[in-house]
Amino acid sequence: MSTMWRPDLSKAGKSKYQALASALRKGIADGVLEKGSKLPPVRDLAYRASVTPGTVARAYTLLKDEGLLEAGVGRGTFVADKQMQSDEPHDWPETVSFRSPWLPDVGQTELLRDAIRSVGEQACTRSMMRYPNDVDDRPLRETMRGHLAGLPIGNFAADDIVLAHGAQNAMLAVLQTVLEGPEPVVLIEQHAYPGFRRAAELCRARVVAVECDAEGPLPDALEEAARRHRAQVFLTSAEVNNPTLRRTTLRRRHEVAEVARRHGLHVVDDDCYKLTPASADSYRALLPDLGWYVSSLSKTLTPALRVGWAIGPRVRTKDLVRTVSFTCFGLARPLTEITNTVLNDPRLHPVLRQTREKLAERVRLALNHLGGHDVTWQEDVPLLWISLPGGWRASRFVRAAQARGVLLKSSEDFVLRDTRAPHSVRLAINAQVAEGCFEAAVDIIRDLLDNPQDEISV
After folding, report:
1. Tens digits of per-residue pLDDT, 364-386?
2. Residues 79 and 35 sit within 8 Å (Cβ to Cβ)
3. Same domain, yes or no, for 304 and 376?
């Protein structure tokens, strides 16, 4: 590339990477940037164009996807020796969200369409014109019993599965079932899914955080909180703590279960984020009289099917069924029949496998771009927990990323309001944007991590 070539991005507005990509396209089309010519390194062109390295990386990635540029491993980026296919840019979003996991569509839409069509063709007027009941949803519960059979959650039958509108709704129903008195107390881990706090607050419960270490909740801290506050429920995620990705060890689960027995503490185990089988017994298996298991289809298949479930102590199943019945009358029959049709479709297991594989690929891709930084990850979990380097606070980092079109969650979202948050952010894997767009967005995160913005107060 000629050292005289300098793109004019003064009127680019917010989409500087799109403007730079357009300038590169024009340069290639006009012959200014000849086929086979080498482009400047990212930082050199960023300095020349007065933009950030992340902007250049995003533009390069976009044109690589279009076939206009190609990367030579260890050699740099070159103008591809091909004719330009189109002057139009890819339809990439102005903002890439890493706030919640977005699953890839590897056949879910087709499964849903076929299931909706099948249920619609077979539906009879009588079944579509009445309120839900436990007879109508039993086929789905029987199907789920088969799908959940291999999980270490203790003995259960189809009648023990209580359906709800997603895991959040199931957890709320559990709290409504077991909490008693005018000022109930719910315990959560010190870094926890914010939905725990919101569900407890909806039940007018006070929320108390329990300190944790690398193995999980500290037994002494849990015991002290249960005793001092007379807590009734502990909300936790043993397999994958959201946001830190910590897995509670089997030894620590037994210690937590022993504390729960001594204090009559219900333990609700939220198992939504892990895409592969559990590593150890759930609290429902360890605490037959106090353990509850909650999950849903949202993170493994699709969030469009708002179907979750809770499996609790058998002596409390009727109480939980009554709670769900009083609050929403249960799941509508079309929804249960569509879900049951999807779960019995022979194409389901390949779709689930491909979903796991695609998400694992994105996890690895993100790690490749974030190498050298402190990132906690699991290949079978669509989340990354990023510890920020000195010079960054979580809230400022999130604002800086948002200003460049990338949305993240701050550690402050996962602690109680009066608790100091660590200097960390959570990145949730988005598999619904093009790979090049995903890489460019992660490169922006990498650029921010590489260039902390110290702030001096006077």
Report:
1. 999 999 988 999 999 999 999 99
2. yes
3. no
User: Which domain range does residue 21 map to?
Assistant: 16-88
Picking from 270, 298, 331, the residue at the C-terminal end of a domain is 331
Same domain, 79 and 26: yes
Residues 266 and 326 in one domain: yes
Instruction: For the chain, state the CA radius of gyration.
Output: 25
Q: Is residue 343 included in any domain, yes or no?
A: no
Here the CATH number for the domain that contains residue 231 is: 3.40.640.10
Residue 260 is assigned to a structural domain of this protein: yes
Query: What pLDDT does 3 receive?
Result: 46
Per the structure, the count of domains in the chain is 3
Low-confidence ranges of the chain (pLDDT < 70): 1-4, 11-14, 72-75, 82-92, 125-127, 454-458
How many CA atoms, within 13 angstroms, populate the side-chain half-sphere of residue 301? Answer: 22
User: Same domain for 195 and 288?
Assistant: yes
Task: Tell me the CA end-to-end span of the chain in Å, nearest whole number.
Answer: 46
Q: Which pLDDT belongs to residue 368?
A: 92
> So what's the pLDDT on residue 407?
96
pLDDT at 455: 53
The answer on 275 and 224 residing in a single domain is: yes
